[in-house]
Recover the amino acids of this structure.
């Protein structure tokens, strides 16, 4: 049995900076190459166009001269193609790359050549190429192109019929476009060279610019690598108003949410450990001391059950507070405040034998979470019951105050000292005047009320009740 091992090759990671630079260079190289090729094509087409114009112009001038020309020796019309061609060529001035020739003789044989006495630099002259002259003289076409080992040749001719038994002839214009095509090629290579220099400059500039643009991204990566559960305090400095700045702001916002989430988690763990340690100790102690006496066992079971119920309530409250950071903690909807206030009043009347009074209602509609708001109001009413005696008055009500609405629970109990007003809304904190036998909670009730108020973008305030006592007020904006 053979075992086949597969080796995985890990390719090197290419940074975003290098990828951006490579794409930039590829795009620029394609663009600059396209420009160079387009310019060369335009120049070559321009050479072809000017060559065609020159050939057409020269042959047209000769064709006009044939019926109108006058022999300077006789003063009459030309009757010999040879004489016609010699006189015409003497009067013409050819361009540097142009040949003006006269051919005489029968088609198919190498013709006699009449030419201007000048050299054609850089080219093999057509008058020296007998085979090419024979092909042109024998051709029935008026324009053509010859591909010779010496280079391309563009030509045009005007045939002249024989007169008085003489030989037929032809006027030939030949143009050698290599020099002008070489100019186009030189321009092409010059553009390519300049493009290469531009790409080198772009490489340096692009590397620096890409590094500067991606600096916040590298900072995001470095910051993310340095983050731990114990340290979420690092933030990225935000500069500018571009997409990179928006990325930094988004990342900082994510860190804020993570920090709050971890903080809530730590608080939950700390609170749970702090508050559950005592009932667990009580339960364990009673179970360890429980004897065989039925009455003792029954009392132990009752105490243990009571502590377990209290632990369950603490856990539920802690879970509720932990969920207060979630965006769906409150689910606002249009609610009639008067109807909500009346419903709360009906529900809290069963909490204890008190003089319950529906003090007043606000007749308006507000967006809020009716279940959470009812939970907060019931908690405030329960808190009032715990710190009053039977028969004492507790008022439930709501009112509109400008652009906000207030829902309140007012009692006529002992009230709360000023030094306790700030701490009673903290977790596991109770006012000094509100500690007593009737206060069996874990100190989370008012913290839950505060969380519900802040979930509605509002707040909870403690005020003095006229005549003595405490009034807790939930304050919400009417557009919340």
């Amino acid at each position: 049995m053979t075992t086949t091992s597969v080796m995985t090759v890990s390719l090197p990671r290419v940074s975003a900076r290098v990828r951006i630079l490579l794409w930039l260079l590829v795009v620029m190289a394609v663009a600059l190459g396209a420009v160079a090729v387009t310019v060369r094509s335009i120049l070559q087409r321009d050479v072809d166009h000017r060559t065609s114009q020159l050939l057409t112009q020269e042959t047209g001038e000769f064709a006009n001269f044939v019926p109108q020309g006058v022999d300077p020796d006789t003063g009459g019309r030309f009757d010999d193609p040879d004489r016609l061609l010699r006189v015409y060529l003497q009067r013409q001035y050819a361009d540097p790359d142009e040949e003006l020739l006269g051919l005489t003789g029968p088609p198919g044989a190498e013709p006699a050549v009449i030419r201007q006495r000048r050299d054609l630099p850089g080219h093999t002259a057509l008058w020296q190429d007998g085979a090419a002259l024979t092909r042109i003289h024998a051709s029935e076409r008026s324009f053509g192109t010859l591909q010779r080992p010496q280079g391309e040749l563009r030509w045009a001719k005007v045939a002249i019929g024989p007169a008085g038994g003489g030989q037929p002839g032809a006027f030939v214009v030949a143009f050698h476009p290599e020099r002008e095509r070489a100019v186009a090629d030189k321009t092409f290579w010059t553009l390519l060279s300049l493009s290469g220099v531009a790409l080198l400059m772009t490489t340096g500039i692009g590397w620096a610019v890409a590094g500067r643009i991606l600096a916040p991204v590298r900072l995001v990566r470095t910051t993310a690598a340095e983050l731990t559960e114990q340290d979420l305090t690092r933030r990225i400095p935000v500069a500018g108003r571009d997409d990179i700045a928006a990325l930094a702001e988004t990342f900082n916002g994510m860190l804020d949410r993570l920090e709050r989430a971890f903080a809530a988690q730590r608080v939950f763990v700390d609170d749970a450990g702090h508050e559950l340690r005592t009932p667990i100790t009580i339960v364990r102690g009673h179970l360890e001391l429980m004897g065989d006496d039925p009455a003792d066992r029954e009392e132990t079971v009752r105490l243990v059950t009571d502590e377990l119920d209290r632990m369950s309530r603490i856990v539920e409250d802690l879970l509720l507070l932990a969920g207060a950071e979630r965006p769906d903690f409150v689910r606002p909807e249009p609610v009639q405040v008067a109807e909500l206030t009346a419903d709360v009043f009906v529900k809290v009347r069963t909490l204890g034998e008190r003089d319950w009074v529906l003090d007043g209602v606000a007749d308006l509609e507000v967006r809020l979470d009716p279940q959470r708001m009812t939970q907060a109001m019931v908690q405030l009413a329960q808190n009032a019951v715990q710190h009053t005696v039977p028969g004492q008055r507790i008022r439930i009500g709501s009112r509109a105050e400008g652009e906000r609405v207030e829902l309140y629970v007012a009692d006529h109990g002992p009230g709360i000292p000023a030094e306790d007003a700030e701490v009673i809304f903290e977790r596991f904190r109770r006012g000094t005047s509100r500690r007593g036998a009737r206060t069996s909670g874990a100190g989370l009730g008012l913290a839950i009320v505060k969380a519900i108020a802040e979930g509605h973008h509002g707040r909870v305030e403690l005020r003095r009740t006229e005549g003595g006592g405490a009034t807790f007020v939930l304050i919400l904006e009417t557009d919340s």
User: Anything to note?
Assistant: Residues 433-440 have pLDDT under 50 and may be disordered.
